[in-house]
Amino acid sequence: MFSVSCAPDVVPVAVTHQTTPALWPIRALSRSVTSRGGRDGDVSRWGVGKKKKKKKKSRSRSSSIIREAEHNVEPSCCSIRSNMLSMSDFVSGGSYEQCRETADWLLSNTQVRPTVGIVCGSGLGGLAEMIKDPEIFKYSDIPNFPRSTVHGHAGRLVFGTLKGKPCVCMQGRFHLYEGYPIQKITLPMRVFKLLGVETMIMTNAAGGLNQDYKVGDVMIIKDHINMPGFAGVNPLAGPNDDRFGVRFPCMSDAYDRELRQLAHDVASELGYSHFLREGVYCVLGGPSFETIAECRMLNRLGADAVGMSTVHEVIVARHAGMRCFALSLISNRAVMDYDSQEKANHEEVLETGRQRAEQLEKLVSTVVSRLEHNNNNF
Ligand SMILES: O=P(O)(O)O[C@@H]1C[C@H](O)[C@@H](CO)O1
Ligand SMILES: Nc1nc2[nH]cnc2c(=O)[nH]1
């Protein structure tokens, strides 16, 4: 059991619900320790703005707070005082218990024991169709899973084999802009870890900032810029759970060097090298696309492509010790010129995905087919 008193001192005044979900509970607790809500991150249930009801709840909830505190890991970022809180007070999705429950449910409903996890980006869900002997679960049927709300993200978890390798594939991912807490959108990574996944492969659609890039290029991500992270929006914010990983994970090796090299080799064999790139992906919160000034700024900061996903998944996957490999399909050119008539739009993003899907799927599946061979090196 532990207690914290950090909330009034550490929460920045300007922080909003949207930008730092991990801090919602802390802010709510700064008013009343017992204004906490459920585990699912529903902001309305954190009691923000419901001052009248708070006092009544405080007595009836104290026993459940103590019960939940059995699973606590002490938050090394907070000072200790007198109010007892549990991990679930901070983690609005993605707690060990939640992930364990989801993983156990999946393990009891499928015979597949995946070592490879795949996340399909916007319009790139066709990869899941390559999976042999598929066992498919709708996200809405999986305990603790969020729902997909974006066109081009089917919302299905597919188990089976890809080129003989047992794998699990997210046909559709979750994004910050959908309104989920950041821990909730990355919950599948922790579930995959508990399922036995060792290697994560992510795809996304992204806007090309690098002026040499063309629509339809595929960029191997070699590094990222976590823009929301600069404002404290990081999926690992909050108490660290040592069962998943260390408090301060290294990110300078986030994108596995050997897997990147393998992808170059495979692309060369397949005759894809002319559209294969390697570069830096910058994540923003979305859902609005960037202004011209923002694109210019990101480009000058060293980003080659800009998108709204992947980075949070990679941070959580790396924290849990999984290898990561990620590809961006350059679905549109980021507009950098005030005279340009181009306008970023989701339909173009999906259309580019349709046009490049087959090659992207071939590239990923061939990389997967070589993983065992490469595994000897890891
Ligand atoms: O899931 P990804 O990153 O592929 O989706 C991108 C970002 C937005 O969700 C959407 C914009 O068209 O595509
Ligand atoms: N932020 C962002 N995400 C994208 N996803 C696909 N294209 C884009 C883009 O231009 N900007």
SSE layout and pairing:
Layout: E1 2-3, H1 7-10, H2 24-31, H3 51-68, E2 84-85, H4 87-90, H5 96-107, E3 116-119, E4 132-138, E5 156-162, E6 165-171, H6 182-185, H7 187-195, E7 199-208, E8 218-226, H8 227-230, H9 257-270, E9 276-283, H10 292-301, E10 305-307, H11 311-319, E11 323-333, H12 346-369, H13 371-375
Parallel strand pairs: 3-6, 3-7, 7-11, 8-9, 9-10
Antiparallel strand pairs: 1-2, 4-5, 5-6, 7-10, 8-11
Helix pairs in contact: 5-7, 7-11, 9-12
Description:
This protein has 378 residues and is α/β, with parallel strands linked by helices. The protein folds into 2 domains: 2-90, no CATH class; 96-375, 3-Layer(aba) Sandwich (Rossmann fold), CATH 3.40.50. Helices cover 33% and strands 19% of the residues. The chain contains 13 helices and 11 strands. The strands form 2 sheets. Strands 7-10-9-8-11 form a 5-stranded mixed barrel, surrounded by 4 helices. Strand 9, helix 10 (292-301) and strand 10 form a beta-alpha-beta unit. It binds ligand LQZ7MJT6 and guanine (GUN). Guanine is lined by residues 205-207, 284, 286, 289-290, 306-308, 331-332, 334, 344, 349. Belongs to the PNP/MTAP phosphorylase family. Homotrimer. Residues 115-368 form the Nucleoside phosphorylase domain. Keywords: Glycosyltransferase, Purine salvage, Transferase. GO terms for molecular function: purine-nucleoside phosphorylase activity.
